[in-house]
Structures are given as C-alpha cells and as structure tokens.
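Exercise 3.2. Students should predict the tertiary structure of the chain below and write it as structure tokens, then compare their answer with the key that follows.

Predict this chain's 3D structure.
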Amino acid sequence: MKKSALAIFLIVLIASGCNLPYSQTTAPTPDIVASQVATMLTQPATPVVGIDTPVGSLPTAEATATASPTATSLPTATATTSPEDPRVLLGEPDFTDTLDSGRSFGLDSKAYDDDYTYIRVENGALILTSRYATGFRGWRTGGAKLGNAYLEAKVHVAECSANDIYGLVFRSPDFIKGYWFQVTCNGNWSLGYWNGDDYTDLGDGANPGGALLTGSNQTNRLGVWTSGSQIKLYINGKLVTEVDDSSQTEAGSYGAVIASFNTPNLTISVDEFAYWNLE
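Answer key:
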C-alpha cells in the first residue's frame, strides 16, 4: 500500500476505533508487531458496526477463511460452592448474552478474518481462532459499555498447550484502550492495561489453588469485578487477585482475546457473557 493511501486509511481507522494485538515471547513483556481494526459497538440493542481490516505489518492480500473448529456442546466448568463466588452472591444477572446471534459483536451476517485471527458467531458461541503459533493477539469487543459491574464469561478452549493464551477484554472505552485478563493453557494468569501504545503489567501468577481447569478441552468461568479503581479477578468463582489501578475507570465495552504460542489454529468458544451492575 502506498504511504499516502495508508495515511488516509489510518485516519479513517482512528476515527472508528481500533484494537492493537501484540506478540510476546514470555509473559508479560509485550513486543508490538502488528495492528488491526476491531469492531465498533455500543449497546447491544443498537450496535454500530465499524470496519475490521489488517494494517501495519499484516499481509495486504485479502484474507480467506480456512476450515476451523466450530462450536459444539460445551462441557460445564466445575461447580463451585465458594462463598466468594460473585454469581452466588449477586443472584440473577442483569443481562445475559447467550450468543444466539452475533448482533452484539457485529457478527450477525459475517465473520471477521485478517489472516491471523478468524472470529465468528456459530451455534450460540463467539468463536476465536488464532491461526499461527506466533503470539499474535487478536480480540473482539462489543456488548454494553459497563461501568461498575461484575462481568463473567464461560470460555471453552479446544486443543491447547503450554503458554497458549485466552481471556477477557474489559473497560475498553474506545476500542483502542482496555484491560486484558489472560490465562494460559498450563494455568498461569496475568492482568494488564493497553493504552493504545504501551502495555502495563498489573499482576501475574500461577494457578491459584487449582482454580483454573488446565489443558485442552476445558471450560472455565472467567470473571472481572470493577468498582472505581478496584479490580478483582475470578476464575470459576474463586478470587485470584485484587488490584487498584486508575488507568481506566470509565465505562467500557467487553469481549474476548486469544493468542497462540504453541498450537496452530488455537480455538476458544465463549457461549455466554453475563453481567451484574454494581451501581
């Protein structure tokens, strides 16, 4: 692409909002290698869909969809009776998106494909596939913009190994900035904030008390409690950590993130997003 055309294209992208995936060799130090535009969504009832197109170091050839695993009947994460489980404490959620359509993520009639990440809604699930084991981050945001809230997603991972990553994106106010709550196939977790240019590590650790179901073909409930600058992370209803960070305290959209380090065509399926307003 000529520089002048690229400059005009980037202006359009900035006006629409974008997400910037990055690669890393060992968590959590980022090495930004590429950019892509993500979907632009506000409330589920009246979504505004933007453009998803690779830029920067991504291939310029038009991406073509390849055969990828589709959503099937997902196993249920291990039940928890933990007294700290927000799902137990808060009762019925204020909203549950069972992904019967892709409307809330701008995928009602199309898939997103940038040669690196293939994203679609099928059979009641938001499905993300990371094609190559390069650590390239891809994600999709949508749904409502949540302020002080508890957000939870049921995430199923197919074949995975070692440092393959999947997780939640939350408090993304403009589809450029936002927090990432990530877990690995072998049980590590991390929390970080991406401001559009730099990634800040806010915490990481090993599988706390065996909360995360590790390995392939597992379903885990990943939850994020946000209240002002306070952030609490949960795995299957168990509190992982508490962080105080004021990088982003305003309302933002949510979604899912994926990155393969070891497994080509790493695939996750999110068959439910639910949230409880805390204000």
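Discussion points: The chain is about 5% helix and 40% strand. Confidence is low (pLDDT under 50) at residues 1-80.
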